[in-house]
Amino acid sequence: MFDGILGQERPKALLAKLLDEAQQDSRQKDRIGCAYLFAGPQGTGKKLMASEFIRHLFCATKSACGVCPGCLKLAGGNHPDLFSVTDDGDSLKIATVRAIQEDLRFHPLEAPRKVCLVEGAERFTQEAQSAFLKTLEEPRDDTLFLLLTDNPEALLATIRSRCQIVRFERVRRDQLAAWLQERRGLSASEARVEAAIAGGSPGKALAHIEEMRQLARATAQDGGKKRGDHKTDSEGSSAEDPRVALIREVAALPPAEENVVPLFKLTEKLAQKPGKADNLKMLLRTRLEILQTFFGDMLKIRAGQADEELVNMDLAELIRTRAARESIESLIAKLGLLEETRRALDDNTNARLTLDLLLMQLADLQLGFPPSACGGRVREGSK
Ligand SMILES: [Zn+2]
Predict the structure, then answer these.
(1) Measured in angstroms, how far is the CA atom of residue 73 from the centroid of ligand 1?
(2) What residues have their beta carbon closer than 5 A to ion ligand 1?
(3) Same-domain check for residues 147 and 195
(4) The domain containing residue 225 runs over which residues?
(5) Beta strands, E only, the chain
(6) Are residues 43 and 150 in contact, defined by beta-carbon separation less than 8 angstroms?
(7) Does the residue 132 lie in any domain?
(8) How far is the CA of 1 from the centre of ligand 1 (A)?
(9) 337: which of 23, 104, 318, 373 is 20 to 30 A away, CA to CA?
(10) Distance from the CA of 60 to the center of ligand 1, in angstroms?
C-alpha cells in the first residue's frame, strides 16, 4: 500500500491496521483513536503516507482504485469528507480552527469517517491551539484527525497527549543511496553524495536532485547563449555538477581582507535559483549541507581516513590538497560555523545576510582569525 515510501516500517504497519479497523462496522470504531500526530523530520514521507491512507480509506473498494466515485472526488479535490489544511507557510489562526469545527459538525457523507488533515500543524498560534484542543477533547467516532509536523515541540503538550504519535525516522544513508540509484537512476557515487547531503530525508534528496537537474539545464542553456552556440540538449550534460562547482569556488575563497567583492559575487551565485523563488532558504540549506560534506571530508582526510570514506569521493584530490592547508581545529570551527548558520536560517533570520556573514567568517578562519572576532570587521568592511 505504501510502496512509494522508503522505510518507516512502524508507521506503515500502524496505518495499515488503522485502515483495517476503520473499515469494520461502527460498533468497533471506538477501538481506533481519533487523532494522530505524524511527527518527524521534513521529507520523511508524512504527507505521502497521510494521502495514501486517505486514498484507501475513501475508496469504495478500499484499494485506491482511482476510478470509483470516492477516488475521483478525492483526486478532483472535492471530496465532502476531507477537510484539508495545506502548508503554505502562513500561521494557522483561530479562524482555521473555527472552519474545522464548522466542517466537523456534519457526519461523513460517503466515507467511513470524516478526515481532517493539517499539514504543518506547528503553524497553529497559541490561541488557535487552545481552541483546537477543545475539539480534540470531544472526540467523535466518525472523525479522524491527521496532524503533520516536523516540530512537535511547537504544539501544546495537552494537544500532543490527545494524539497518538506516529514517529517518522530518518532513513539510513546506505538505504537511501540504494533507493536513489534504483528510483532515480543515479550512479553509485552520485547516490552516495545525495544521500549524505539529504541527511536521511528521501523527500529532500528528491527535491535536491530535481533542483540540480534544473540548474544544470539552466546553466547549459545560459552557456549556449553566451557562446552563441546551438543550445545543448535538455539534459545539459555539458554543464558542471553544481555541487562540484560550489566546492571548487569555496575551496578557492579569498581571505576577506584581500578582496570583499568576490565574496559578494559568490553569495549572489549561491542565492541564485532558477524557477521558483519561494524556496531560497531550502536552497541555501542544501548549499550549506554540501559545504558540510566538503569540510567533513577534509576532516576525514586529516584524521587519516582513506579516499573511499569521503562523501565527495570524486573530488578526493582537491580535498587532499585543500586539507593540507587546514588544521583539525580550524576544520572543526568551520563545521561549527556551518551548523550555526543552518540554525540561524531555521530561525527566520535574513537568509542573504546570514550567508554573507558565513562566507566572511569562513574566509577569516582561513587566515586563522577566531570566528568571534569577525562580525564587527565584516560590517565595517562591507559599508
Ligand atoms: Zn476507488
Answers:
(1) 10
(2) 59, 65, 68, 71
(3) no
(4) 172-239
(5) 35-39, 82-85, 114-118, 143-149, 164-167
(6) no
(7) yes
(8) 13
(9) 318
(10) 5
